[in-house]
Amino acid sequence: MLKKRVIKLAEYPQLRLRRLRRSPALRALVRENRVDAGDLIYPLFIEEGKNIKREIASMPGVFRFSPDRLPGEIEDIAKLKIPAVLLFGIPKEKDETGSSAYKAKGIVQQAIKAIKKTVPELLVITDVCLCEYTSHGHCGVVCDGQVDNDRTLPLLAKMALSHVEAGADIVAPSDMMDGRVLAIRQELDEAGHVETPILSYAAKYSSGFYGPFRSAADSAPQFGDRRSYQMDPANVREALREVEADIVEGADIVMVKPALSYLDVIREVRNTFDYPLAAYNVSGEYSMVKAAAKQGWLDEKNVVMEILTSIKRAGADIILTYHAKDAARWLKEG
Ligand code: PBG
Question: What is the mean pLDDT of residues 41-64?
Answer without folding.
Answer: 97
